[in-house]
Specification:
With about 240 residues, the protein is α/β, with parallel strands linked by helices. It is built from 11 helices and 7 strands. It has 2 domains: about 210 residues, NAD(P)-binding Rossmann-like Domain (Rossmann fold, 3-Layer(aba) Sandwich); about 30 residues. It has a 7-stranded parallel beta sheet, with helices on both faces.
């Protein structure tokens, strides 16, 4: 059972608002007592087109939030939920159509062999200039090098990333040296690019915490307790062994 559908979707929009309204940047400017409002010019979500990649429970909740902001919603999923699309009023499109039309992309799909580096150099090339990328799903869905190049070229206006390729090396000092010894040259390159992106003013990074709310943790514990009780009573629930 799901425990963080709304939790992760809300966090994705927190990242989106931070990027589009430059909230963290302006907060740091206040801390430094060096404020120039011209540096924090953002844009509204209302009327913008968001492309939601993956319409499982989290993606569907993200679509509902987007509708609350009066955004136009496009979605891509290999297994479209047409009933839900009709319910809240959005359209399923191909990935290429989404790349061409969306102003904002929010990723909410699992990582599979088929969608590894779903957002690669070719994908970014098809997008409008000035898009925003939000990823609270899995870091490997995005080609790190391609994203960095797209940001540097201005194709991507900003990014909100709760997940990264090789994120362990960036988030934990005690793992960094060990992981660098074990990494291939490609992995080392991605780790280096992560560090470079961390320094960019139009990138907001968080340490894989989109799931982490009091409410979600309570749901996890409640489900675990119920599973244990059901098992002890001889009636196991939520079993992954069929």
């Amino acid at each position: 059972p799901g425990y963080g559908d709304s939790t992760v979707a809300e966090f994705a929009f927190g990242l989106l608002l931070d990027v589009t309204r430059k909230i963290s940047r302006s907060y740091r400017a206040v801390q430094e007592a060096h404020v120039d409002t011209d540096h924090y010019l953002g844009f509204d979500l209302r009327g913008r087109t968001i492309g939601i990649v993956g319409t499982g429970a989290i993606g569907r909740y993200a679509a509902r939030i987007a509708k609350g902001f009066q955004m136009n919603v496009l979605a891509y999923d290999p297994y479209p939920n047409e009933a839900f699309a009709r319910e809240i009023g959005f359209e399923y499109v191909t990935l290429d159509e989404m790349f061409e039309q969306a102003d904002i992309f929010s990723l909410h799909c699992p990582l599979t062999k088929e969608n590894y580096h779903l957002f690669d150099e070719d994908a970014f090339a098809k997008m409008k200039k000035g898009v925003v990328i939000v990823n609270t799903a899995r870091g490997e869905l995005i080609d790190t090098e391609a994203l960095f190049k797209a940001i540097s070229a201005g194709k991507v206006w900003g990014a909100g990333l709760d997940v990264l390729e090789n994120e362990g090396a960036l988030l934990h000092d005690d793992l960094a040296l060990h992981s660098m010894r074990e990494q291939s040259s490609d992995s080392l390159l991605r780790s280096w690019i992560n560090l470079r992106m961390l320094q960019l003013k139009n990138v907001v990074m968080t340490p894989h915490v989109a799931f982490n709310s009091i409410d979600a943790v309570h749901r996890i514990l409640k489900t675990a307790n119920e599973n244990i009780e059901a098992y002890l009573q001889g009636n196991p629930r939520n079993s992954v062994m069929k």
